[in-house]
Every structure is written in C-alpha cells, then in structure tokens.
# Entry
Amino acid sequence: MMFTLIAATLFSAAFLLAMGTIMWMFAHYHDKMVAALQFEPIPHNPPVYHLRIRRPRPRAAQPTRRTALPLGAMAA
# Structure
C-alpha cells in the first residue's frame, strides 16, 4: 500500500510539473508563436536573364585550298 501511495504521489508531482512547464512556456512565448504562425515570407521574383542570341548570317562561300593527300598503302 505504501509503494502505491508513493508512486502515485511521484507520478502526480511529475505530471503537475510537466503541465506547469507547458503552461509557463505557452504564456511566455505566446506572442512569438502567434507571430510565427502569421508570418508570410517575402515573395522573391525569379531572376530574369537577358540573353542576346547572335546568329551570324551565312557568308558567300569562299574557295578553300585543298592540299594533296598521300595515296597508297601508307595513307590509312
């Protein structure tokens, strides 16, 4: 019987201490919790990249110089 009474007392004391801590933290940080729940992040516009696309116009074909390639068994 004595063990049950001590265990119940200890459990009740721990429970009341935990509840008191929760209530104290809620009362102490109530403003910060409300501010965190109402916070809306600042929207950031996605960066705009300005790309300059250059497409050179085709020029008239210029004659190319061809060099003589060696022919024969050693060419490959």
Q: What stands out?
A: The first helix runs from residue 2 to 28. The chain has a mean pLDDT of 84. The helical segments are 2-28, 30-38.
